[in-house]
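Q: I have two molecules that I believe assemble together. Could you output structure tokens for the complex as a whole instead of separate predictions?
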Amino acid sequence: MITLNKLTKEYDLVGTKVQALKEVSLTIERGEYVAVMGPSGSGKSTLMHLLGILDNATSGQYLLENYDITSLPDREQARIRNKHFGFIFQSFNLFSELSALENVMLPMGYANVPMKQRRDRAAALLEEVGLGHRMHHLPTMMSGGEQQRVAIARSLSNEPDVILADEPTGNLPSDKGEEIMQMLEGFNKRGVTIVMVTHNPDQGKRARRRLFIKDGELWRDEGTLVKGA
Amino acid sequence: MAQEANKILWRRFTARMLESGLLLLAVALGVGATAAGFSLLANTQKLGTEMLSSPAYREIVVSTQTNSDDMEVPAVLKPTADNVVLTANDLQVALSVPSVKYSYVSSGTELRFLNQKVIAQMTQMGPGPGAEAAPPATRTTTETNPRQGPQGLLTADELAKKQAEADVFLTEVDQLRGSSVTPQYFDAWGLKAAVGSLFAESERQSDTTLVVLGSAAAVQIGGTSIDAKALVGKKILTWEGYAVVVGILAESGTDTIDNSFFSPYQTTASDFGEGGPPRRRAFNVQLRFAVSDPAQLEQAASSLTSLLSSAVASDQLVVSNPRAEAQKLIDRNTGIGFLILFLALATLFIASVNVSHILMSRGLRMRKGVGILMALGASKNSILQLFAREGIFLSTAGSLLGALLAWPLSQTMESALGLTESSLVFLILGVAGAWVLNLVFSVLPAVQNSQIPPADAMRAA
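A: Yes, here they are, computed for all two components at once.
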């Protein structure tokens, strides 16, 4: 489903070129549950940004469903993000001005889903994550676990192929983190591809595949020795 | 476009009511002041141009000290001897000045009409003004004067008999203001007869009082009883005798002319310097000289001063160029208008820069939100539209408030500068122009905020 060929990302920091990602090549199949692991500054977030088309690679190739999306116009990239990817962030990143229902409806607005359909689907998703009774509440009135569940519902609103989760339990107590992990595993079982950045080795072990990033390079892939080891 | 995204911005806008309110007020003040300043300047130019296009501002008015007091803007005012007057000869002599196209006299007068109502009132009061010394001979006819009844006033019966005569008309109007003019007045002012004719120089000394009515004055005189056009040839009964209507003017577009009547300015032979001490007789009015090209006014004034100074001592002559005085007034008002517009534009600029700055910082504060929106599917164009909406709303709402401020402000300023008419069109144009100017500043931050790369915005998230 996702194929990266020698994907490289360089940043220009005051005249000095810094390689955040160095010729990373990998393939992620539909329905996989992948954990991306590695120390801080290793290039995990850069990889996630490139996977989610929030950034363009300096060189290399990115194929989505065998379609080269390496350098598409902004509008097309936005459409692909909206349709194919769902994002879950460590700090939830809900809009505090919107109710839980409106937060979940938001991505569907960019997909031009009719208002009634938006509302019905958002309500159904909130029911599914166990927040049917709090759909009109503002995020500030919810606990961290509840906010992350709203964020999960939001990430699923356009029925994406891939969920990109960046430390989804990082700001939650362990019991709430476990709830979120079970929820993600449940969606994966229903066929949604999960790519999750985590520092937590236990959570990493629960993924069926692990990618280890070190100094911008893909160091290890699910026990497959790529380099070193 | 996601309506939910609009809600985010709107709720952020209303959550900071004080800041948002101050932004609106700043825009309103800038737009209001600019619109009022523009309206003032444009209106000054428009009314000035209209004023100068009037024949009254292609005239040189020449007078002597004895009658210069009633000149609107005497250019020179010097004490002179009482016995020095200008004569009608001076009118003809002045035509020898190449730039002078018309020379004429125009002097205010009025007609007082006799009708049933006036007779009834006067009968109750006893001998009326008709029993007093006759007014100047200019209106006296050779026919039997109708006011000369047993008590110097017509009886009701006599009046009824007069009314029965086919060519006599009694108007319900009590009096009408007008001018005694020499025939070139009509040429100078471009006045044409719509019905009947104007009077000629040869008819000026006629024993019969001839009148030419302005278009509105004819309607007024005719009232409901007779069609205005049918007044031509009629003898209208006045306190001084009959006034024979010889013509009705085509509509001039100038109220003072359309509501007036014009009768020949009558002079005695000596007014023309043909006997007696020529400059000691009653032709003591202002002489008016019109040029075809206003640019020749200064030269005409200079030539007329030299010419007439040979007949009247130069220090006894008052020559006025109303156009030059009007132009000075217009120039002064234009200068004030420019100054006010400049200050207003400075206010608008400062307000717009502040609005732009605050919207920019609001965008920066929402950088994290922009990143999330982009991750959820917003394109740069969607972000641009989102922030532009905020700018457009702020600019439009502020401009509408500004329009409400601009109206009384422009009224006050225009009244202070003596402008009699306000123009809503100029005010609307001013508001529109100021709105566009402010809009540019309000939308610029949206352009900047939409150009944040998604990954950079995401790092903020």
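A: One point stands out. Residues 4 and 210 of chain A are 16 Å apart (CA to CA).
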